[in-house]
Amino acid sequence: MIYLDNAATTGKKPETVIRAVRSAMAQYCANPGRSGHVISMKAALAVYRVREKAARFFGCDGPEQVVFTASCTHSINYVLKGVLQSGSHVIISDYEHNAVVRPLVALKADFEVARVTPDDAETVENFRRLIRPDTKMIFVTGASNVFGRRLPIDALGKLCQEKGILFGVDAAQIAGIVPINMIRQHIDFLCVAPHKGLYAPMGIGILIARKNVSNTIIEGGTGTESANLIQPETLPERLESGTLNLPGIFGISAGIDFVRNLGGEEKIAQNEMRIVQNLYDGLRQIPNIRLYTPRITPEKYVPVLSFNFAEKNSAEVAAFLDQHNIAVRAGLHCAPLAHRKHCTLDSGTVRVSPSTFSTESEIRQLLSVLNRKN
Amino acid sequence: MKRYRISTGTVTYAIKGRDLLRKNGFNAYMERIYSGPGSAGCGYTVVVSGDLSQAVRLLRAAGVKVLETNEL
Questions:
Q1: Do B43 and A62 lie within an 8 Å CB cutoff?
Q2: So what's the ipTM on this one?
Q3: pLDDT in tens, B15-35
Q4: A67 and A78 in contact (C-beta within 8 Å)?
Q5: How far is B31 from chain A, CA to nearest CA, in Å?
Q6: How far apart, in whole angstroms, are the C-alpha atoms of residue A326 and residue A299?
Q7: Residues A207, A145, A123, A135: is their CA dihedral positive or negative?
């Protein structure tokens, strides 16, 4: 099987990650932060070391800002519903995933959509124009999960700082691919899907909160202040009611090491980008292929590419590729705003997303199969 | 040398506090406390030997919450 659906989850996990998950199950099966016995304390210490590692990796102020959640979507919900209220004004981009849009709709937030254009300065101006005196937050994806377009995070962070607005980033498609430093980039809330670019297991997410989250959407046991019926205020435990996913947290630790040992985010992105650029060039040679972006470059894109095949529905093309043992994703990718922007709402797109394990040979096979379909 | 229990509430702050105090030459370790009369319930503490006021100053400067201190 040629797996090119890594924007959904990285299909091959490194041996080191698998070993780390196994080690959590074999040697650390106790509830961290709940008991005082040796193995519980050992587990708590191990979790804390992963918080430290994640804090350094994403450049926040300290390990206590690192919250482990069930997924990036959960992290986004914690932020949006924890900081905003019904009627709060928030600005998002026209590339947002439903993980952002649906919570805002459910919350009845007053959200406006800023247009991302090929010119980053113009994009930032589009956000600036929508800012009102009561704007509470700008929340954007780091990069489109469908078309790979990166958002100008640095400039948007500066804009938020200048205007005194909270800044949140959905890093599902950039963590592990694009270096992130929350302090330098003025990011207040970072939501991470470690099972993608950090090669961790599914079922674990990270929220890094540099600002207070006033409302909780999950309450329960935290192992502390148990006599108090009100949810504790201190992060990370405030947002971590329930037993932590220790195997997932161990997987994150090994995943961060894996990314670092490969030379870091830029090195990984460089290799994947070359693969996607070759795919782009190859697709341009095939009649009836539709591409939706200029040839992608690392400054403006992450290695994710969408295309369509003549008038065929994207699902049909993906099914054809599946018959040839090539896994890609078709449809709307839970991002209707992005598809509306690119006029692909009816057809969806076929999305190809490599990982560090993908090879040029796999791309040649994909191109060969597509040529046969013509 | 006198020993003190510094209550930090959460295990995260207890580890952060313990690490910080050790880096600054204190003999410190973590201990879980359970509910007692008048207490807020279970939580984590750092037990430290030496100058309590210096230890508390270090912890607070690093953002570690110090809920209460007791001599042991």
A1: no
A2: 0.91
A3: 999 999 999 999 999 999 887
A4: yes
A5: 7
A6: 28
A7: negative
